[in-house]
Specification:
mainly alpha; Amino acid/polyamine transporter I; 17 helices
């Protein structure tokens, strides 16, 4: 298939694959956790985030099993096509005997949906994937230039007092960067963003390896700096200035049920990576390590979230924690550190943007490409990438506030992508495999093989939708 995986011979090690997944999971959303932790209590927060990590990992194992079954069906179809060929058939039989479920072909969610879903299932899938991915890209297109604008135009201190996810575009545009005002600076950064990161979307995920490794180093550096500064403040019981006070340990809330819905709404997609797993996992060389790599990724992400949030709630007063945690460091004595932390969203989202755009591009291909007439190369290489990144970039030029719209479209579509679709893909893939093949010996099968787990995830999805809806109403009331 055009587009990557090991189909074109491009591979990487399990370590690099783990870096890709870690980068995709840990985004700027982590910066909203500390404030939500303070409102829910640190014990309640840790329990809830651990629960979300467990459910997300559960559905990741469903995705891997469905990918393996899809590869099995691809080999079966190849064998059927070449069964009359005495030269090809023995080769395919030999491959099947080794491991017919080996994940060597990148099979996107869209292709698996076509394999295993009914017409209505396909419609549900495409509604979820297109809404979610386009919404994600819109956020990235706006967030990265806004972060650069904040640093270049000196808005960090202002935002520290007035920042809101939906209102940070309302302050007066002032002059900065010579003759440019802050609005014009935003457009300059948006254009630069499109020129620098846009070309990555025309390649495969594995072509972004250098970008992924660079942003991983920057991301770890940012987290470590914030954690170390917070720990030093906790140890010294000293803030950045006379208005910044370190709370006493007894004053930090342990559990507040009323704050859990807010944390739930902030954290529900903190372990989202499912939509890009086919692109990220297929090129990994040693597939036997997938379970270990992903387990460590999820554990590491949880520990980072917990450590970041715990050090935050014990370092800063609950009423002083900002919606965006990096804004709590704007008064740090070192301006270099405060600006470096202000650029955190740039580091995190810059690596994610190409991967999500590539995922959307590949799914658009499967959505519109006729099964019996593949797209010409120029459509695959140029038209589809432009269709993926063009609309979000245009949105960025017309508005700096897409959060309100995406908070609804992304929330509900995200539940489908993260929970419902992986569970249903695995369920219907298992059914079809057991119906078509004599045996079902899948080495990539999920540990959670009982059908009850599928039902459990569906029920959990309904609970998530209910809590997210309550959170939308609660936070805007």
């Amino acid at each position: 298939m055009a587009g990557g995986g090991v189909d074109d011979g491009s591979t990487y090690s399990p370590l690099v694959g783990g870096v890709y997944v870690f980068n995709l999971i840990v985004g700027a959303g982590a910066l909203a956790m500390p404030k939500a932790f303070s409102e829910s209590g640190y014990i309640g927060g840790c329990i809830l985030v651990a629960l979300l990590a467990a459910f997300s990992y559960l559905t990741v194992t469903f995705m891997i099993e469905a990918m393996a079954i899809a590869n099995r069906f691809r080999r079966h179809e190849e064998r059927q096509r070449h069964v009359q060929s005495s030269e090809v058939a023995p080769l395919i039989n030999e491959t099947e005997a080794a491991n017919p479920f080996e994940i060597t072909h990148r099979t996107e969610m869209a292709e698996m949906a076509k394999m295993f879903f009914s017409t209505w299932g396909l419609r549900f899938f495409y509604a979820c994937i297109v809404i979610y991915l386009y919404g994600d890209l819109c956020i990235y297109v706006v967030a990265i230039p806004k972060s650069l604008q904040s640093v270049a135009c000196g808005n960090l201190s202002h935002q520290a007092h007035s920042h809101s996810h939906h209102e940070n575009h309302t302050y007066a545009h002032h002059h900065c960067m010579g003759t440019l005002d802050s609005q014009q600076a935003y457009y300059v950064f948006l254009t630069a963003f499109a020129v620098v990161l846009g070309p990555f979307c025309f390649f495969n995920a594995q072509k972004t390896k250098a970008l992924q490794i660079f942003t991983t180093v920057m991301r770890w550096s940012t987290f470590i700096i914030m954690i170390v500064i917070a720990l030093i403040g906790i140890a010294n019981k000293k803030g950045f200035n006379h208005d910044d006070h370190v709370p006493h340990a007894s004053d930090v809330s342990t559990f507040k049920a009323t704050g859990l819905p807010v944390l739930f709404g902030v954290s529900i997609y903190s372990f989202m990576c499912h939509h890009s797993l086919p692109s990220l996992l297929t090129p990994i060389t040693r597939k036997k390590t997938l379970g270990t790599v992903l387990s460590l990724d999820f554990l590491l992400c949880f520990l980072f979230y917990a450590l970041l949030s715990l050090t935050a709630v014990f370092r800063f007063q609950a009423d002083s924690l900002k919606d965006l945690y990096t804004l709590n460091f704007t008064d740090f004595p070192s301006k270099f550190v405060s600006y470096f932390l202000g650029l955190f969203p740039v580091f995190t989202l810059s690596a994610n943007f190409p991967i999500i755009a590539i995922t959307l591009r590949n799914n658009l291909r499967h959505l519109f490409e006729p099964p019996d007439r593949p797209f010409p190369a120029w459509v695959t290489r140029f038209v589809l990438p432009i269709a993926a990144i063009g609309p979000p970039i245009l949105v960025g030029y017309f508005t700096e506030d897409v959060g309100f719209l995406v908070s609804f479209t992304g929330s509900y579509a995200g539940v489908g992508i993260q929970y419902v679709i992986p569970a249903l893909l695995c369920y219907f893939a298992r059914q079809k495999a057991r119906r078509v093949f004599e045996t079902y010996d899948n080495p990539h099968a999920s540990f959670f093989s009982h059908k009850g787990w599928i039902l459990f995830v569906v029920v959990w999805s309904v609970v998530c939708i209910g809590v997210v809806t309550f959170n939308h109403i609660y936070t805007r009331s």
